[in-house]
Amino acid sequence: MKIRFKKLAKSLTGISTPLFGVSWNPPESDREIVRKLIIFLEDRRALFTSPRVATSRYVERSMGEIRKELTSTLQRIGDNPEISPHLRAMRAACRKYLNDVSSRKLMHYRGRERETFEIFSALGELRGIFGIHIAQLAVKYGIDVERELASILPIEDR
Q1: How is 90-147 classified by DSSP, letter by letter?
Q2: Domain locations along the chain
Q3: Which pTM value belongs to this model?
């Protein structure tokens, strides 16, 4: 298999002479990119903390950080068909959660209990989507997931 020139040129960082020298930055592997993303998500408590602890403002801020990281990771991997659909689905779930929560906050005529239930329901939907995609990425790339984040992964059907 040939190495494309553009890919090779991106990794080459310098050439020195007197005798000879080449500087080389090997490209980051897909597995390493996914591993770093999962490590980042393991520290996002909004994905797994008890709903009683997860306040709406805290979760909204965390969703913004997650969306930013997903976008950054998408920019690094390009249009990789093994990874990008998962990241795009998780990013869309963040947008949907933020849109749902924002629209519910504007509807003040509803009772507080109903609003809280709807926010927790939206958070549960988001966690379910993330769980499916994190599980698929972890299996594809052989990456371990910390216990807290693993709590949102689909359970084994026995």
Answers
A1: HHHHHHHHHHHHHHHHH-TTS-HHHHHHHHHHHHHHHHHHHHHHHHHHHHHHT----H
A2: 30-150
A3: 0.76
